[in-house]
Amino acid sequence: MNSDAIKNRPSVDSDRMLKLADETLAIESHALESLRKRFIEEDAEHFIQSVTLLLNCKGRVVVSGMGKSGHIGRKIAATLASTGTPAMFVHPGEAAHGDLGMITHDDVFIALSYSGEANELMSIAPIIKRMGTKLIAMTGRPDSSLAQLADVHLNVHVEKEACPLNLAPTASTTTTLALGDALAVAVLDARGFREDDFARSHPGGALGRKLLTLVSDVMRAGDDVPVVKADTLLYDALFEITKKGIAMTAVVDEAGHAIGVFTDGDLRRLIEKQQHFSNLVIRDVMSKNPRTISSDKLAAEAVSIMEKFRINQLLVTDNDGKLTGALHIHDLTEAKVI
């Protein structure tokens, strides 16, 4: 930045900056408290009607709004969609030029406009009503044109905006967003929406990986599993451990049932107690009754077992106890389950 630019840069009044920030938070906090009080005392029935419409919707929930209300509408649509309610955002201007064809009589239309008089919405709202589509309006004026046209009106009125000029949508968008979240939460709970449902719509996220990844997706199988018979010499078992590279070997009986495990940790403890073990057989030094998990369990359950018992490896067995695979803590880390 050159010296002229520095000279012409507006001076910063830190005290005023902090004062305005504090006032903004106070105004928006007050707006939410007022919304909550009004909701309990006056608008509870309207809220219940709105939730009922969303639950009974046979099509999709279509959210629309202009300007800042449009930005809030996109967030509400996204929240509904991610919590089990098929939803999308449609721009009212685009709807008036063809996108109205996306909307059917089986849908529920949520219109956002603080004034309740947005021209773009008012040009399509009567058409939507004639189609038989249910209309929920979120406005700050119960007597507005949009509110009067709606099947259900949700009041997001605020005493004033946080903007010092009382012009830029600030407190009003906060209340609209909060009430949209309240709708989504009430609907997801009524649907019985749970963590695994959430994971299915968020497969790329951490929760999705934890709730969708199975042991079978990450376990080692076939020749990658270190395994020896019970009568194998310890020396030979150590070669198997080194070859397969997960610091342990499973021990199985003649039928393939997992009857033990021998780890690097077991070897270190054995060396501390015994100097000569050339003739030792693995069954004599293995840890019996090893921790196991089945391949159809969630990988997150394997993590819980490893953490609970402070182990780094876990055997995978079928319902009969036969060895089918093995897990190392690194496998779970690489799969980003941890």
Describe this structure in words.
This protein is of the alpha/beta class. The chain contains 15 helices and twelve strands. The strands form three sheets. It has a five-stranded parallel beta sheet, sandwiched between helices. Helix 3 runs parallel beside helix 7 (171-191). The longest helix has 42 residues, at 14-55. The protein is elongated and about 90 Å long. The model has no long low-confidence stretch (mean pLDDT 89).
Short description:
By secondary structure, the protein is α/β, with parallel strands linked by helices.
Question: Got a strand count?
Answer: 12
Main sheet overview: 5 strands, parallel
Strand order of the largest sheet: 2-1-3-4-5
Fraction in beta strands: 15-25%
| Overall spatial form | elongated
Structural class: alpha/beta
Order of helices and strands: HHEHEHEHEHEHHHHEHEEHHEEHEEH
Helix percent reads 40-55%
Contiguous uncertain segments of 5+ residues: none
The DSSP helix count reads 15
Give the arrangement of secondary structure elements.
Layout: H1 3-8, H2 14-55, E1 61-65, H3 67-82, E2 87-89, H4 92-95, E3 108-112, H5 119-130, E4 134-139, H6 145-149, E5 152-155, H7 171-191, H8 195-200, H9 206-212, H10 215-218, E6 227-229, H11 234-244, E7 248-252, E8 258-263, H12 264-273, H13 282-285, E9 287-288, E10 292-293, H14 299-309, E11 313-317, E12 323-328, H15 329-334
Parallel strand pairs: 1-2, 1-3, 3-4, 4-5, 6-7, 10-11
Antiparallel strand pairs: 7-8, 8-9, 11-12
What features would you highlight for this structure?
338 residues; alpha/beta; 5-stranded parallel β-sheet; 4-stranded mixed β-sheet; 12 strands; elongated
